[in-house]
Write a structure and sequence with these properties.
By secondary structure, the chain is α+β, with helices and mostly antiparallel strands. The protein is built from 7 helices and 14 strands.
């Protein structure tokens, strides 16, 4: 299913790009209300779309790998697309994301991975290595580097990935790229699970999105139960309590309490009936007056 993000999501994703864009009601359409710099820039949701896993890129070591090599079916992936020389927005997104990950008790490489893919075909793996090192150091968690991947590659491959997730960008005359801010949550098998718009996200939102993408393969039983009680709200870009689930939970608890009470009453009544029956049987310890036939009163 494909659809454009809402006006509220648009405001969050473009705050750091261009202030006049905050008033644009229909983003990504070629009309006079859209600044020239933002023509062709959009995010079109394509939930459950499969990433081009056969597309090849270079990692931070210069090794050529397939995108599918990073999706092993074990952990969900937090994907960010932009370019390494981006003067503002990409750094803002990565800085905010790293700060949020620091507040989570999950660790990259254990419960989830982080993947940043450059849309600029002229960027080198050396630059990717430097960028990766800076964010691994900022994250500052033991062995966290194993969960961070920065990729560069040819235009056709980064474009194929951008098309799959609905990330539309535009190269400007000065060589910079105009694009929106956001993170893409990908399943362990390489399918789009959730779109998170803007640069900043609460730890709870990231945690729930990753848990949802993993289909219960990460997190505790309590995490999965809490997620079951929440639903993603695209307007607030967060997970909120789902009233229907609460009603279902309340109804289930009522049935359990009612069933427990009825069972207790039934067992108590059985015990009482059994005790009365035993009290009437010979040898039960209850004195029974003998009846002598023919005796004179």
């Amino acid at each position: 299913m494909k659809f454009r993000f809402t006006a509220n999501q648009l405001l969050r994703s473009l705050t750091a790009v261009l202030i006049p864009a905050l008033a644009v009601p229909a983003f990504g359409q070629a009309n006079s209300s859209v600044p020239h710099e933002l023509q062709g820039v959009d995010i079109i949701e394509n939930l459950n779309a499969e990433l081009p896993l056969d597309a090849t890129f270079q990692d931070h070591t210069g090794r050529t790998i397939k995108l599918g090599d990073l999706f092993t079916g074990e952990r969900p992936v937090l994907l960010q697309m932009g370019y390494l020389k981006c003067p503002q927005l990409c750094n803002l997104v990565l800085n905010e994301m790293t700060g949020t990950l620091q507040d989570m008790d999950w660790t990259t490489g254990d419960q989830f991975d982080v993947l940043s893919v450059s849309i600029a075909p002229d960027e080198s793996h050396e630059l990717a290595a430097a960028k990766r090192t800076s964010y691994v150091l900022m994250y500052d968690r033991r062995n966290s580097g194993k969960g961070w991947n920065f990729l560069v590659g040819p235009k056709e491959n980064s474009q194929a990935l951008a098309d799959a997730i609905g990330f539309q960008f535009s190269k400007q005359p000065d060589g910079e790229y105009a694009h929106a801010a956001g993170l893409f949550v990908i399943t362990p098998e390489g399918r789009v699970s959730r779109y998170l718009y803007g640069a900043s996200h609460a730890p709870k939102t990231l945690r729930f999105a990753l848990l949802e993408a993993s289909d219960g393969r990460i997190g505790s039983t309590l995490d999965r139960f809490i997620l079951w009680c929440h639903v993603y709200d695209p307007d607030s870009d967060s997970y909120v309590l789902f009233a229907v689930r609460l009603m279902q939970l309340g109804g289930a608890l009522t049935l359990v309490i009612l069933g427990t009470g009825l069972t207790w009453m039934w067992l108590a009544d059985r015990r009482k009936s059994r005790a009365e029956l035993e009290s009437r049987e010979p040898g039960s310890g209850v004195a029974v007056s003998p009846v002598i036939h023919g005796a004179k009163q």
